[in-house]
Amino acid sequence: LSSLQRKAIGALITIDVHSRDVLDNLIKDNITTPTSFGWSKQLRYYYDETDREVVLRQSNATFTYRCEYLGASMRLVITPLTDR
């Protein structure tokens, strides 16, 4: 694998492990409704078909995704403190 491919795979694994941990915590904490704080505090992506754009939501905040590119750097490990 090239250096770029290793970085991309490493970033995907990091994001997938974090997603798994978030889901495990939602299940463990019995978060069952979209109005629960445990759900609303998560960064979520939605596609708005009317405006044809991706929207990010977390708690009471809403942002339009603007395709920011940060480069192919190594992703930091995501820990529970990262989510705070």
Automatic annotation (TrEMBL):
<dbReference type="InterPro" id="IPR026983">
    <property type="entry name" value="DHC"/>
</dbReference>
<dbReference type="GO" id="GO:0030286">
    <property type="term" value="C:dynein complex"/>
</dbReference>
<dbReference type="GO" id="GO:0045505">
    <property type="term" value="F:dynein intermediate chain binding"/>
</dbReference>
<protein>
    <submittedName>
        <fullName>Dynein heavy chain</fullName>
    </submittedName>
</protein>
<dbReference type="GO" id="GO:0051959">
    <property type="term" value="F:dynein light intermediate chain binding"/>
</dbReference>
<dbReference type="GO" id="GO:0007018">
    <property type="term" value="P:microtubule-based movement"/>
</dbReference>
